[in-house]
Design brief:
Layout lengths: L10 E2 L8 E11 L5 E11 L10 E4 L4 E7 L2 E2 L5 E4 L2 E4 L9 E9 L9 E5 L2 E5 L19 E8 L4 E4 L2 E6 L2 E10 L6 E4 L1 E9 L5 E9 L7 H18 L7 E7 L6 E2 L4 E5 L12 H16 L8 E2 L5 H19 L2 H20 L11 E2 L8 H18 L1 H15 L3 E2 L1 H12 L8 H4 L5 E9 L2 E9 L14 E8 L5 E9 L3 E7 L5 E4 L8 E4 L3 H10 L3 H21 L7 H12 L5 H7 L5 H10 L6 H18 L1 H10 L10 H20 L5 H8 L3 H13 L4 H11 L3 H14 L2 H11 L10 H14 L1 H4 L5 H16 L1 H7 L11 H15 L6 H11 L5
Parallel strand pairs: 2-12, 18-19, 19-21, 22-24, 25-31
Antiparallel strand pairs: 1-23, 2-3, 3-9, 4-8, 5-6, 5-9, 7-8, 10-11, 11-16, 12-15, 13-16, 14-15, 17-18, 20-21, 25-26, 26-29, 27-28, 27-30
The chain binds tryptophan (TRP) and zinc ion.
Zinc ion binds next to helix 3.
């Protein structure tokens, strides 16, 4: 059993029991005050008919609440009847009526001193809430679990111009507003916002003709930066109607931008709350990737209205039910709005960087975990991104049409319910007629499967033999075979693709054969059809062939990526390794192919990150050295820049984008390709001054930032950094970029020094998660060679700051500990230094439960 100390036992999926009491309706009144907000709750409750047996105790969750009074059916409860502890209160069965009853309570909370940003807190003078996963219990006593769903009426009183909550506005006057949310919802979807805010408004007419008011609420002055988010919202609403048949269901849809936020955004019913970096954008302040993130996250939160809100999760173990599906939907959306191939490559890069990394270390857990201590620690790449991959595999296995039928059935059958993965699998079984019990193992078995493949060719028969194996993960020493859909094509030596299809691998060893005249080159796992590591015997010749000839853009890119990974790995381990000329000519061919999308070419010319090479070497059984990998990577960039200089110069000259900046995919693709060329040219010859020129002449943040990154990476940054700060010191989001570019791009030998000095900059702020992540997080996760600098100074610096942050914001601290997740992959000196720092963090007095769980798992202290 997972436990860190006697006080915090793990919660287990196997122990699930339905709630003893349900809440049908919640009526809340808030009397806002920064230091003493009063919350009056009136809950219409009744015994859960699904639970049999005699009358039972009433248990309500509540944390850090000052209880003023409580009553049942208007009879005040005497203090000795209310048994209160750190996590809530209980009333024993004899004080509870047999049938339905009304619970009322008045509590007091202090939003101003809530630096954990969970529950009701204040950000830049405005009140806001974050209730997922268990923040509602910091607002009032409540059965704070997603299988308790109620309609809400909220009255807000306060000397504040704008007062918002979920649902439809039913009344307002000076100093008050009332909201009614007619849709039953779990408490984690409750939201309240109050402050001096301005709305940018628009309208959307739904497919059935309903006119919906759209509002994006921001601080005065930020209104001109909402246009792209609003556009993305309208496109998301239209897409969900067209592709999934899902219509919006309230009179208004609101988004609020908040500066202090632990995560990206939150899908509260009718009132999404966003980290302001995923709402606000202008050409001068936001990069192309900021725009793409805004589009994806606006869509993600909007899509949750059906996949998450209308159909929610029975318990937090089922988190992937809403998150995996909603990530899958937002990925489909972005693919449809932009280039599907480019989007797929970007998603796989992310999956490997975050999820494969998780699976390969002490934090590995199943897409549906079986136990947790702090649920906030399970909002992970595995639940989100691998969860989305499982949906993609299901869709591939049953086909697009059956997938659509299964989703229709899901919405029809489960609207208004709190569901499980079993419910989800069942709609696919019913729609397809297939038995999916084997497939379901993907939800409970952690770890990334290795798929080996061998080929033979004899007497006109070509055979591929696959073998699969999943390495052990914490708590799961033995793994079973999983269902692996392998999309493939066979290409003749002349470059003709003559066969495509899908192989379903279900056993530990399995062969597939074809009658062919000549031995083909196989293109396997097209579109990355399963989240596995393909271990093939393909040498550089086959990879170069696929890079040139493969018609599947994903595998074309993958071939180039594998070549680069192998090269950097080798160069980092042996002196004098030289790439073959064919490698450079293949790259030049891709770079100059007029048929290829510039966005794709930008990805094809990008080298894997230091982190990716670290992971690849570790998975082959080597002990990687981040510093030599960093050097090897730089050397390879330099060689590419020198070898294909002429085409790169032409690309740089020709791929300018004319006219004023627009964030559309095609312009963004041209800029990405052009800045890739700039990076390679600068690697070869930093003295040419191209980056300096681009930095000073750019009229948009994308080009300014790509130039600035290169200047910092090449140690030519002083003037540019000073200028950049002078121009933007009053803009929070841009100052975040100023911190991040230094944390990530500063060469490893001086990175610790620079980051340490930046922690003393007046703009560094422990209380603002974006700012903290842009310096400490970016350094620990984005400057791999700097973080792992010999001697352990990088580890010490990060832990120094995590120790300070833990008292302020446990959730963000706990997430950032994952910077240490690969600690066992390194050679002994680094391993010891990292372990020492984790132990130091663990020994901190009053370490939060969040961080305690993470560090314990990292260290492998899971016995009990
Ligand atoms: N449900 C949110 C999403 O994925 C995630 C989220 C936002 C969250 N804020 C959080 C999760 C705070 C845990 C804690 O869209
Ligand atoms: Zn989500």
């Amino acid at each position: 059993m997972l436990r860190t100390d006697a006080q915090t036992p793990a919660i287990r999926l196997a122990d699930y029991t339905p709630p003893a009491y349900l809440v049908d309706r919640a009526e809340l009144t808030f009397r806002l005050d920064p230091e003493a907000t009063r919350v009056l709750a009136r809950l219409e409750m009744r015994p859960n008919p699904a639970v049999s047996g005699p009358s039972r105790d009433l248990r309500l969750d509540g944390r850090g609440l000052k209880l003023i009074s409580a009553a049942i059916n208007a009879s005040p409860l005497a203090p000795d009847v209310l048994v209160q502890d750190d996590e809530g209160l209980s009333v024993s069965a004899e004080h509870i009526p047999d049938g339905p009853f009304v619970w009322t309570a008045e509590t007091e909370i202090a939003p101003l001193s809530n630096s954990a940003l969970e529950g009701l807190y204040m950000s830049g003078g405005m009140y806001c809430t974050q209730c997922e996963a268990q923040g509602f219990r910091k607002i009032t006593f409540y059965p704070d679990r997603p299988d308790v769903m109620a309609t809400y009426r909220v009255r807000i009183e306060g000397d504040v111009p704008v007062l918002l909550s979920n649902g439809n506005l039913t009344g307002q006057g000076p100093g008050w507003a009332e909201w009614e949310d007619p849709h039953r919802k779990p408490s984690y979807l409750f939201a309240l916002v109050a402050g001096d805010l301005r709305a940018v408004e628009d309208r959307f007419v739904t497919c059935s003709g309903r006119d919906v008011l759209l509002q994006i609420w921001v601080r005065a002055g930020d209104e001109p930066r909402c246009a792209y988010a609003m556009d993305a919202l309208k496109r998301s609403m239209a897409w969900d109607e067209e592709v999934y048949g899902r219509e919006y269901d309230l009179d208004r849809f609101m988004i609020v931008a908040v500066d202090d936020f632990n995560m990206g955004a939150m899908e509260n019913k009718g009132l999404n709350i966003f980290n302001s970096k995923y709402v606000l954008a202008s050409p001068e302040t936001a990069t192309d990737s900021d725009y793409a993130n805004i589009e994806a996250i606006i869509a993600h939160e909007y899509f949750h209205n059906w996949t998450g809100n209308r159909i929610t999760c029975r318990d937090w173990f089922q988190l992937c039910l809403k998150e995996g599906l909603t990530v899958f939907r937002d990925q489909q959306f972005s693919g449809d709005q932009r280039s599907r191939a480019v989007k797929r490559i970007e998603d796989v890069i992310r999956l490997r960087a975050a999820q494969f990394r998780e699976d390969a270390g002490p934090l590995a857990h199943p897409v549906r975990p079986e136990e947790y201590i702090e649920i906030n620690n399970f909002y992970t790449a595995t639940v989100y991104e691998k969860g989305a991959e499982l949906i993609g595999m299901l869709r591939r296995l049953v086909g697009a049409e059956t997938y659509a039928e299964a989703l229709d059935l899901y919405f029809r059958r489960h609207d208004g319910e709190a569901c499980t993965i079993e419910d989800w699998i069942k709609v696919f079984e019913d729609a397809s007629g297939r038995d999916l019990s084997h497939f379901k193992l993907w939800y409970s078995q952690a770890g990334t499967p290795r798929l080996g493949v061998k080929e033979t060719f004899a007497d006109g028969r070509y055979t591929l033999t696959f073998s699969q194996h999943t390495p052990a993960t914490p708590g799961q020493p033995h793994k079973a075979e999983v269902v692996i859909p392998v999309a493939y094509g066979l290409i003749s030596p002349g470059g003709e693709e003559f066969e495509t299809g899908l192989m379903e691998i279900t056993r530990s060893e399995q062969s597939f054969s074809w009658d062919v005249a000549e031995k083909p080159v196989p293109s396997l796992l097209r579109e990355f059809s399963a989240p596995v590591i393909l271990e093939r015997e393909t040498g550089p010749e086959q990879l170069s062939f696929l890079l040139a000839k493969d018609t599947d853009p994903f595998n074309k890119w993958e071939a180039g990526r594998s070549l680069a990974l192998a090269l950097i790995g080798q160069m980092s381990r042996e002196a004098g390794v030289e790439p073959a000329d064919e490698y450079f000519s293949a790259l030049a061919e891709v770079a100059t192919d007029p048929m290829l999308d510039p966005a794709f070419k930008a990805l094809a010319l990008a080298l894997p990150s230091v982190d990716e090479v670290v992971a690849a070497l570790a998975s082959e059984g080597h002990t990687p050295d981040p510093l030599s990998i960093h050097e090897a990577r730089r050397a390879l960039e330099r060689k590419i820049g020198a070898s294909i200089r002429e085409p790169l110069e032409a690309i740089y000259a020709e791929h300018t984008v004319s006219g004023p900046y627009t964030p559309d995919a095609s312009s963004a693709g041209r800029r990405a390709f052009r800045s890739r060329a700039l990076a390679l040219l600068t690697a070869d010859n930093p003295d040419a001054g191209l980056a300096e020129t681009q930095f000073s002449s750019a009229d948009n943040m994308t080009e300014r930032m790509s130039a600035l990154s290169l200047l910092v990476a090449h140690g030519r940054e002083d003037d540019a950094l000073r200028q950049f700060y002078a121009d933007w010191s009053s803009d929070r989001l841009v100052v975040d970029k100023w911190f991040a570019v230094q944390a990530v791009q500063t060469p490893p030998e001086k990175a610790v020094l620079v980051v340490d000095e930046l922690t003393r900059h007046p703009d560094f702020d422990l209380k603002n998660p974006n700012r903290f992540r842009s310096l400490i997080g970016s350094f620990a996760m984005g400057n791999t060679a700097g973080f792992h600098v010999p001697g352990g100074a990088g580890y010490r610096l990060v832990v120094d700051w995590l120790i300070r942050l833990d008292d302020v914001n446990p959730q963000t601290t706990a997430r950032l500990t994952s910077a240490f997740s690969a600690w066992r992959s390194f050679a002994e000196d680094r391993r010891i230094a990292m372990r020492e720092q984790l132990e130091r963090l663990l020994a901190k007095r009053d370490l939060s439960k969040d961080t305690n769980e993470m560090v314990s798992r990292l260290l492998g202290i899971t016995g009990g």
